[in-house]
Recover the amino acids of this structure.
């Protein structure tokens, strides 16, 4: 029986080797990932019993996605088999001034075509304490939006904590659609997580004096964003990640959290990027872990920031780090000296 | 201006390395292929100006498919850019008693969603002499069935030769649907190409005393199949490939052709398989080449059989062989001695 | 709770790519395998809840071995973490007249140094129906011989079925030592599995008119070997695999089983080898599956023979095949035709 | 019919993977490249019909070089087949204080042995507007120097624009020889392109206060270099790239252009290098594109600088970027944020 | 001080991975090889102190060739550094009916341009017992023909045994040229080695009733060829390898030797080919080893045949096998059973 | 006969590709390395006849370790074959804040189990001038500590120079054990080499005001450390490397040397790390080379610092650089400009 449940899509991720452009040669790294699956893997690596719930086709590609989760000990017993395809995203890793690129090919995936009734929420949530979803899942289709609502309702009934990473994806829906669907879901959410742009793109709540593409973030301005989110939706906490993109290779990375009255900022890390996809998910997982383990708000934030800092040094969507590694960094050892 | 025009779908082909099963490791060979594209590449390698007509999305994955055709000199100028996705097929190469596996993920591809009006057939056919399609294209969607008909009508108007490889795909349609759509298209076809099963699966015309899965083919019985096809549809020629599958590694491979009165058989080759996908397409291309170059029926058949024999030794969908190499084999040098 | 329990060592397997000799280049395929782990993976792939019990070091190499088992859904919850190292075997794949080579580097592994008390057998066997071990585990050290005995005693107490694959390894012990340790263990065993040489090497029971290295097997002679085994140790069944090695690339493969009165032979397969390591383990797993699912003796034998035939076409120690695939081959479809 | 014609050598480029030293393992990346071919590919990627003219052997290695150009849509119809070999260059990518290394093995290549009469310039230039060559081509052999002159004469006759990238290569000729051959060719040239050292090495025109190896460039001093070039040879424009090499991984990159009266400087980019070979060629192509499309001098310069900045992030000689990507960077988005 | 001296060219060997055609992807296996170097490596692997003498450029590619020989313990101390390039050969591995292809790019290599005086033969031969060369070395250039003669003269003076593998290469010279140069060299030779075609191509001595390309060899006819060679040139022994090419994957392989009066035939091996390049060289090395170690003529022949049989199972030019492995096969264990 | 002798362990080094975490995929880079072997390879690359002395098992893994040394011309003639295993270390390369990790699996290696009498020191040292060992060798086992003492005694008797790199490894022994064994060995040592931590860990001699993990080094403080070492043990020179770890990707690197009266500091390099394992060994080799070639103390130090700076840009344990490359950097060319 899993303690934490995440629900969403896991996709096949196709990436050329190293810094090659799409199809520059005839090999692709073929791994799996997706916002909620990434959170589940992180939590499982932290030693928490976590289930990932989704729908995947009965063929070998669906089976491979499940094997990839199983290997980390994620509970995949509630994944429904059916539908036709595994969604795909193509990823090209940028370098220097050349940005990374993502091309989605996820329409028609098994989960996007899942319907009410596919998931037995009471059974899935039996014994669970926490439900996590992101803004991607309700954006997949009208059906998945309904499914998320059903899940939230059941989770709330059981007094589970509900966290949501806003995760706005402009290729999936417009700001208007996002607001229409997400606003009512926020009623169920206890902990809201966002990046520098999500609150603005979905709810029109903007940080002053920040220019995300111009590489300028006014950290203090995000206290106000968090406060407004809490005020408007009654969250217990709102946390925001703060990425300053200097180049495709170098980012600054920090985060903040607010409980409505107080606002905490994490350390800011200078990161040499190996793979930044999944960075936000690893933050969400770190924060969930910290709060689930009853760390102080500040400690949970630092744990989350350190976990997600480390994610940037790991290839693939999944954050392959342990609690010990995160704690070592949060405690200040970022020198990267060899550990023999 | 291309002499020969083929029309259909080009897909991304994702294959694990060597004999690995799906996702046994995290690499995929990512190349492109598809029945009609394979024919175009073969013909281009034989030195004939050939165009491949299709619809592909405007993004980088579509561009990569086009680059793969360009590299062989295939004319891609009539490929329309639009729609959302490149169709995909996953391929696992079998060995010994373990069969190869193909999983299609082609629904919703740009070409499947192409509509009447996307293609300016008179312009495309300007100066061309030959039109080739396969049974896959009309099977993709109701739209593509219409598009094939439009193309055939225009080609016929211009007195072009039309060839069709029946290529029945049970994952795309039922025998009933296939017959309903294919039967009227046969009116336009001059040269019909099929494998051991197509005529039976689509038109119910069966070879006596053959058991394809049991590895037993009665070659003579196929004379009757070809005759019946010619009689029923008025083809000029009907050609059939004859594969005896001993194991996933070893096949016997031959072919026959009939003009309604006479029936010719090619040599039979004992093949150690490197990659058998695209074997039928390479036969079609060889036959088109032979007939287009006015070889005798027997010579064209032997050219086609030798070309497709060689294909089985080449990785990927495309048959990377030259006229000289095909002629050398057709002339009898199959010893595989090193050429220094 | 697992239905079937296997106990033994899982090793890191280091193999040069393809047919390269050791260190011919600077890459190694690094996977995991070992007799009892291979059986567990096979059974898990057949859909049976199976646990693998062992001891592995607490560091990342031990964790990776566990991840490899998790990915197939093998229950790894009873694996003890401790000791210093993961055993290793180096494998070089032979070709034609050049034999494959195995170099073991397994001394001092965590499981070889495990001690009585490391495993809580009553808890491990809770709810289980079947215990499987091989002759390798007691050969690892005096300790592991004791551990196997403890496990057998507990299993017998619970009326579980016990199967043993004799698996003689001359690098681990002499025939004398093997007989000394194995003889008393046989008292617990219900089903004994062996290859063409094991019975002779351990118990001195020999098939007449067979010359294993000379590539000559007298199949009938093995009926007598099985009968003698049953008579001497009171097994319910004794099964023997029959490999005729024509070259490193081509083997004939069959098996027999006896219940003491009747002797059944499976079909004999002509195999083009991809990877023959783990062939015997896949036979054991197939036989356990068949008998556990109450197939007839003949059907279980054919299932096991087909499963292990397919293993030879799969890279790595693990047999990555499904019940459906095994049944298809056992039912006679060995033509290797592409499955689209 | 191509609008822009480039003439020169395309070589096989052999590079160890990543940062490996020569033959540190037994794999080589085997791609193609060469100054003028690189310019042709860039222009073709920008959507301009461009032909590359050269001579290549009739065997498969020559054919592969052509396929690599075809894939980008470069017109290869005027490439003559003959001679014996494709020139080769071995490349080792440096890191930190270890410089990249190039070893040339290009003597005796087909193009170096081409003779007057191999190329039908009037036919090649039919309908073309622009001819581009570099200082490498006349340096290959006495024959190629004659061929360049013939091409220039024919191009001038047709009022085509002629651009030349000086591209001094000390392994091919001495400064004295270079000056002797290049000086008369300059009469035909409209637009001269150079790096920080070319003008000095070939024509003895030096920038004051610059120490190229010492990592110190006096940008202003290059205005004078450009002016002197224009004055001496009557160029319409002279453009110079300005590389400050901080380490093998980090460079600053900028460029300037002069029309004899005015001197413009581009933005300077801080670059994390993926592959800097072909950087100058990508600048030349960008400048040709800008001027050919009638951008202002300043805009053409910024386009060229941005195009070549991006080249440093792309593996291989060829600049695989689109006009849109170049414009985005020139417009100021160098943050490298992921594009979803 | 080396006991056996070989003299010739070592080339860079560029081969696409597996069965890929030239430049089907962008990777090449980059190793080294060449007739006489291959013999030196074989002998060194057999434990004999062997030197390889050649000329190689001073740059890193030359150094890499030397490192590849050093790794096997071949004495490279007499290799002269100078000249410009390492010769290259491109190799494509055939499959089934598609033959392997070799494209040479060796003109202008350092050794081809070596001159009399580059090698201090008395010093090189100091303490040596055996000199081996092949027909390739004198074919490289007029200079190397002179160098071979000088070496033979010095070796003869010292009473060393001289062996020559005729190794006719039609790309290097015509039969007429070969005969003109080789005939006088034969005076120095004690042991002549040839394949099925060499004697005919160079000296016009033909085996009756054999059709090499047609896959038909009359083994007995080669006794007469060997006798004629011995009679004409006074060799002590003449040995001929007998390859029957069934396909690019399957060959039969045997050899014979004659002392002028008696004619011995080796066992014939059925070989599944991994890499047949260097097969003849490995036979020569095996024969030299056997005779150098004073085996009987028949035993030396069987040793040589077994050694070269094994070579066909090893990737690359070099025969990476030990005396123990060769003896095991010669003694009859060709079953390819796994050696644990 | 080698001039310089090093004695120790060479291990198999298993590293995932690039920045992958352990077993993130199924490939490992499999190379060899170890402190004293690394020094031997460096010196051999610098052109000095150097022998590496050790014990390795007689099987193919041991042979491969020897081949890897042979390829650089290291004299391996004194390596004893025996024992059971080659020690292994697993290496994971860190990035940004994630540190590199080393897991040792070296217990029970052939050298750790070597005994007095395995090595004939008088024969090994015949004609040699210098003996080098590190603190790793005596830490392997009680036996190796004795062997090092025997070697030192024999070397001293012959008036050879003896250098020792302290190289403290906490996984092999405690500070107490280290001091107990190392202290008496210091009597033989002429030149002592250490990193920032060794002197403190072994002898309790500490630099003031330095915090190694905190990334803060007080360079001046190490003068005192060196002086104390010299005073206590009577070394001729003591040299210390000074690494400031900014992140796993970026280090500052310098070194100092003292003769007891004077203290010299090298340039400090800003390094973008490719592979920092073996950095200290490359410094030791550089220093040995400089002193052996009678450079001034300052020049030898700069040579050593430049050599080890370059090592950080080279994959693998071995420093694949030449004297020319080191001199170029020491002379100031660290711009990393391409060398054509």
């Amino acid at each position: 029986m899993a303690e934490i449940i995440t629900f969403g899509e896991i996709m096949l991720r196709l990436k050329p080797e190293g810094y090659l452009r799409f199809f520059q040669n005839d090999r692709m790294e073929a791994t799996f990932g997706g916002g909620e699956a990434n959170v589940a893997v992180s939590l499982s690596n932290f030693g928490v019993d976590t289930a990932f719930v989704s729908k995947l086709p009965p063929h070998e590609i669906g089976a491979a996605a499940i094997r990839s989760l199983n290997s980390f000990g994620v509970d995949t017993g509630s994944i429904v088999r059916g539908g036709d395809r595994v969604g795909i995203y193509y990823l090209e890793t940028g370098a220097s001034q050349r940005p990374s690129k993502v091309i989605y090919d996820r329409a028609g995936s098994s989960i996007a075509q899942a319907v009410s009734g596919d998931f037995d929420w009471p059974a899935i949530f039996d014994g669970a304490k926490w439900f996590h979803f992101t803004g991607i899942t309700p954006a997949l289709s009208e059906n998945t939006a309904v499914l998320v609502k059903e899940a939230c309702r059941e989770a709330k009934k059981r007094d589970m904590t509900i966290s949501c990473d806003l995760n706005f994806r402009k290729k999936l829906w417009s700001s208007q659609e996002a607001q229409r669907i997400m606003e009512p879901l926020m009623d169920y959410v206890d902990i809201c997580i966002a990046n520098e742009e999500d609150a603005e793109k979905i709810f029109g709540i903007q940080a002053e004096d920040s220019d995300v593409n111009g590489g300028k973030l006014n950290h203090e301005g995000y206290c106000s964003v968090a406060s407004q989110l809490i005020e408007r939706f009654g969250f217990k906490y709102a946390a925001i990640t703060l990425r300053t993109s200097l180049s495709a290779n170098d980012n600054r990375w920090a985060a903040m959290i607010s409980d409505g009255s107080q606002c905490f900022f994490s350390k800011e890390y200078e990161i040499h990027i190996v793979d930044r996809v999944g960075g936000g998910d690893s933050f969400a997982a770190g924060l969930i872990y910290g709060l689930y383990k009853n760390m102080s708000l500040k400690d949970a934030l630092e744990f989350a920031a350190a976990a997600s800092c480390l994610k940037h040094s790991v290839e693939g969507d999944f954050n392959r780090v342990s609690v010990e590694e995160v704690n070592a960094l949060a405690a200040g050892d970022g020198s990267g000296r060899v550990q023999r």
